[in-house]
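Submission checklist for the structure archive. All mandatory fields must be present; incomplete records are returned to the submitter.

[x] Identifier: Riboflavin kinase
[x] Organism: Hohenbuehelia grisea
[x] Residue count: 198
[x] Sequence attached
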Amino acid sequence: MAAVTTQTAAEVASLGEPPVAPLQTESFRVDRPQIVGPESPESPFPIRLSGPVQKGFGRGGKDLGCPTANLPDESLPPMSSVTKTGVYYGYAQVIPPRKDDDTLSRTDVEVLPMVMSLGWNPFYKNERLTAEIHIMHEFKSDFYGYLMKAVVLGYIRPELDYTSREALIDDIETDKRVALNCLQRPEYQKYTTDPHFS
C-alpha cells in the first residue's frame, strides 16, 4: 500500500463530493500487518503540520473511545497535496498559548506518538476532508484553540467504510498498535526531537 497515488486527497476534495470508500472485510482485518513501511521515513515523509486545535464532531471520544484533535482546513495542504486519504502515524505535540498555562501537565506537552486520519470518515458520511489526530496519551483536560504540531512519518492503511461501529473500533485499536510498533524503529524515534516541535 503506497502512500502516494495519482490522485491526492486534495485532488479528490476538489471534485466536490466525498469519494466512495471500499468496505472493510474480515480478511482485511485478519491479514493486517503489525508493522508497516520502510525502516526509515521515505518521501513524501516527513510531513510537518501545525495549527490551532478545532472542535470536531465529538464522536472520537464518545463513540469510539479514541478522542481526536482536528486541524483547521488551512493547515492540511502540506499533506493533502502529496498523499491520499487514509490512516497515518507520527508524532504530535500540544503547545499551550502561554508559558504559565497550567491546564496541561508536563507530560501532556511532550512530543507523543499519534495516529491520524486524513479523509471523509465514510462510516459517518462526512461531507468534507478533515484531518483528525489521536495522540496516544490520556489528557485530563481539553485543549481546543491550543497550537498542535505534528510530524507525519508513514502510512498505515487506506480509508475504509464499515458495516458496524465495532468493526471500526477494532481497526482503530489495530491502527494504534501498528503506529506504536512502527515508531519503535530508531530512524523514526529521531523525530521526537525534530526542530518543528517546541
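[x] Structure attached
Curator remark: The chain has one domain: 21-193. The helical segments are 9-13, 26-30, 59-64, 77-80, 165-183, 186-189.
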